[in-house]
Amino acid sequence: MTTSPYASDALPGGTVDAVVIGGGAAGLNGALMLARSRRSVVVIDSGTPRNAPAGAMHGFLVLDGMPPAEILGRGREQVRQYGGRVVHGEVASAEPAAPAAEGDPRFTVALADGRSVTARRVLVATGLRDVLPEVPGLARHWGHGVVHCPYCHGWEVRDEPIGILATGPASVHHALLFRQLTEDLTYFTHGTHLEKDIRARFAARGIRVVDTPVRDVLDNEDGSLAGVRLADGRVVSRRVLAVATRLEVRSEGLDGLKLPVEDLPDGMGRRFVSGTAGSTEVPGVWVAGNATDPMAQVGASAAAGALAGAHINALLAAADTEAALAAGGTSAR
Ligand SMILES: Cc1cc2nc3c(=O)[nH]c(=O)nc-3n(C[C@H](O)[C@H](O)[C@H](O)COP(=O)(O)OP(=O)(O)OC[C@H]3O[C@@H](n4cnc5c(N)ncnc54)[C@H](O)[C@@H]3O)c2cc1C
């Protein structure tokens, strides 16, 4: 799905130094490093960043409290300021093309609308998709009354009645973090197993446990979250529900790159595997941000993108040097 359109640059012809797939914090910061290194770079972005439902971004120095759309809007302008391009569109396929030389690969990246571009290197920064448990009424509160991250939204709901809708072991960790923010915390096991010793720890911290499954989520008249209705009909009022979502790497359209994917522990989702500075087993392809590091917040994602961009530039510089040597020529730049 392509939403939140913004002014799009033209897709360049010929071969660019790098295509960045995904224009969130990771992709834009990678592109910024490349553009400032005088690399031709194009970001292709479908415009659906993970934190789009949130009104403000928190926990990142200086930018704390700024709306996510404003951060990305400014980021796009900064990339453009150095000659980088940002194209609004969805990548439908990406695959290796014939290399220019040994160790200097090429890739063809095609958009859903049929346009395509050739790149020397690819940075994948497509982020992840949060998958909520299937509870009627839950999804419509995502990013507002239903949250996943104490560092992103916790302060804003301090001292409120909060519920943990358990999805697995990660929810126990969640409960202890949200207990730091409120004394009124209820843990809905919702069919998950809770060990006796964890129950004892919860009791010691005053965390109530409800084992009756949640049937649905209830709304106030103004549309905000009112609480949950249990399978036995009882209603438990809550202002906020915290849910540890399943974290699924956004890999649509990228199969042709053959990037290795691995499962996260406890069925928590899947991520692209990466190594030093976001490099992957696939020569010429890097990954940064939530696509490979599901726990990374905006700051960490941006930092990973920057590091990958710098690493790509370094390897391009080495490839340029090899090519110059092979050609036996000299260059003014
Ligand atoms: C509700 C919510 C609130 C959050 N609040 C905070 C907060 O307050 N502070 C904080 O630090 N973190 C917060 N986060 C986490 C934050 O969203 C992530 O850390 C951050 O978005 C990761 O950046 P990214 O660049 O890796 O991915 P994203 O920001 O998700 O960007 C990925 C981009 O890739 C694009 N894309 C994906 N597939 C394709 C494709 N095939 N073709 C083209 N484009 C594609 C998407 O459209 C998207 O624009 C929040 C998360 C959620 C869910």
Automatic annotation (TrEMBL):
Residues 17-298 form the FAD/NAD(P)-binding domain. The keyword Oxidoreductase applies. It holds the Pfam family Pyr_redox_2. This is NAD(P)/FAD-dependent oxidoreductase. It catalyses: [thioredoxin]-dithiol + NADP(+) = [thioredoxin]-disulfide + NADPH + H(+). It comes from the Bacteria. Gene3D superfamilies: FAD/NAD(P)-binding domain. Keywords: Flavoprotein, Oxidoreductase. The keyword Flavoprotein applies. Signal peptide: none annotated.
